[in-house]
Amino acid sequence: MSYAPQKRHSNRAKRWIITIGVFIVVQIIFIAIDGTFLEPSINDSDNVLAKTVRGVLESKLLTERIAPYSFPFFNLFLIVHVVAILIQALGDSISAIFAKR
Prior knowledge:
The chain has 101 residues and is an all-alpha fold. Helix content is 71%, strand content 0%. It has helices at 4-33, 48-57, 60-65, 72-97. Helix 1 (4-33) packs antiparallel against helix 4 (72-97). It is elongated. The chain starts with a helix and ends with a helix.
């Protein structure tokens, strides 16, 4: 008898529960903060990195197309988080397909 597949399955399920839990908690925090005085302020200095980030945050993608929040940083964070979850899902799918049986 081998217990490795069950342990592997258990770890994967635990990792997914944590990932989805963190995603939901972050979204609840964003919903609570969005449109209030608690929104963080972004530095508008003459720094090249700050200008680049400001350009990304003011892009049409984050202000019009994917805009569940009024604060663009939350929209950017949502996109990054969803992409990370999709990459993890793809990796888990590939490892499940090619795992030794």
